[in-house]
Amino acid sequence: MKLVSLSAAAIAAVFLNASSCAVAFTPIHGGFVPTSRAHSTSLAASKGDVLDCLVVGGGISGSTLAHNLNKSGANILLAEARDYLGGNVKSKRDEEGFIWEEGPNSFATQPSIVRIANELKIDDQLVFADESLPPWVNHNGKLHPLPKGKGGKGAKGQLELVFGSNGVLNFAFKGELLSWPGKIRAGIGALIGHLPPPEDKEETIREWVTRTLGEEVFLRCIDPFVSGVYAGNPETLSMKAALPKIARIEKIAYSIDWNKFGAIFYGGLKRQVELTKERKADPPEPQWVEFEYGNPGSFRYGLSTLPNAISEGLGQPVGEPMKEDSKVRLQWKLTKIEKSNDIFVATFDTPQGKKTVNAKSVVSTIPAHALKDDVLTPVLPESAVLVDKIRSEIKRKGVYYPPVAAVTVAYPKSSFKDIELPNDFGNLQNLPGFGLLNPRTEGVRTLGTLWSSSLFPGRCPDDYNLLLNYIGGSRDVAIGSMSEEEIIAEVDKGCRQTLLKEDAPAPKVLATKVWPTAIPQYELGHLDIIKELEEAESKVPGLWVCGNYRTGVAFPDCVTFGYEHAKVVKSYLDGIEK
């Protein structure tokens, strides 16, 4: 019984450590290092000269790719339809001392982020959350912490995760989030085994979790986690596509000879050993700031620090008039890409009228829904699969982007419930945690609430708590047609249901940002769409159709893409030069 309950407690930690981005859906700018190469890209375009690479789309994927290509010596241009770089990443601050995000709130720290921060000389602005802060789950009117260590390193950290006051053992024997039947069911799947995966069916997240760990773990742990990451529906999201790292654990489990029934606990242990070896073989550079893998991080004045520094490094300081010799073009909307004599010709609508750019290679990182006007079909007709593919099983057409609203509010600390939280975390008024997840069974419309001022101190005046709330998603598309006042009312209602006293004052509303097409959904059939795209793309050398619908939705996924894909493009350019 003890072993079973222990493994059940570890399940939530496995999911959180595998992704480390629950409810982390993205103008201040930092310093930069000027590059040694300076090309007048606008003149090059007007004279008919040919760029090495045109990067279309200035979100995190596109801007980091442009930075890495420029750093490698390639002659590039970064074109973005909006009037800023960063995509859904928008950081704001006001004169009262509030700093907030209107998109993603943080990142799970990875080497790619620390590397680029070092290159741009903004690593002194990196901030990391207290590693002991847990995510909380709202269930039956109470807040339940998920297992977390206390920030210890190496073996000490592992001991804290198991034996600490908020460790796995405490969660298993004293935690009230899972019932004993739920713990037993999860323990059997984790330590003994479970039904094998179906051979002729792609599983949804709900089907996978229910098969391996049981319905209760799904409803109380994984469903709110998926809502936080994707704002998605786990009954349509593909396990292999949306959570590939976790799905891989099951394959690893079955690869262990004696583990005949695929108990995933042992697969997780084996994968952890592999990760440790991989990280030792490729350690961080000595000049980088110290960091912990997966720990929530940001920059002192918000995530926009990164794309703003990239813009400055490419010759276009934020807030200044467009510079002719910069490698950034804002408010340039791609209308068509064609090919002539092995050269790509891109046409843009711009504030100055139509512009064309010639390039040896093109990387599109614009969202799939932005390709609906056949901008790529002249050179890659098969790209229409991203917007036109009929997916009858889930009643979708193409890659789906649901609406999500990011609502930042603040309340006086004294208006929060004056209660002591379990596991020695102290009073709720101090918000000792990462944030709060709301399972869909709890009747709270808000998907999750990030405790921004606790994650990164200095984000609001001392007598306030700052909350970033996400609401909407695949299962609540009505958010997209609601007024700001209606959305705020729903968010305030959710805060009162979970965090506030009955007589709490009205919220101080800092921002309400509705993203009509927020996050691409990796639903059933998604991998088939990407496979079709890859096959078509292979027939058009020098063209890559990418974006977070292909390489991952999390902030670190986008930054890592920018680093890795720059190598691919540079290799291609070197090849055609030879």
Automatic annotation (TrEMBL):
Family statement: Belongs to the protoporphyrinogen/coproporphyrinogen oxidase family. Protoporphyrinogen oxidase subfamily.
Residues in Amine oxidase domain copies: 60-569
Principal location listed in the UniProt entry: mitochondrion
Enzyme class: oxidoreductase
One Pfam assignment: Amino_oxidase
EC number(s) stated in the UniProt entry for this protein: 1.3.3.4
Catalytic activity: protoporphyrinogen IX + 3 O2 = protoporphyrin IX + 3 H2O2
Pathway assigned in UniProt: Porphyrin-containing compound metabolism; protoporphyrin-IX biosynthesis; protoporphyrin-IX from protoporphyrinogen-IX: step 1/1
Protein function: Catalyzes the 6-electron oxidation of protoporphyrinogen-IX to form protoporphyrin-IX.
Transport keyword on record: no
Signal peptide: 1-24
Cofactor note: Binds 1 FAD per subunit.
Name assigned to this protein: Protoporphyrinogen oxidase
Entry GO CC: chloroplast; mitochondrial inner membrane
Cofactor field: FAD
Compartments in which it is found: Mitochondrion inner membrane; Plastid, Chloroplast
Alphabetized SUPFAM superfamilies for the sequence: FAD-linked reductases, C-terminal domain (SSF54373), FAD/NAD(P)-binding domain (SSF51905)
GO terms, biological process: protoporphyrinogen IX biosynthetic process
UniProt keyword annotations, A-Z: Chloroplast, FAD, Flavoprotein, Heme biosynthesis, Oxidoreductase, Plastid, Porphyrin biosynthesis, Signal, Transit peptide
GO MF term (any one): oxygen-dependent protoporphyrinogen oxidase activity
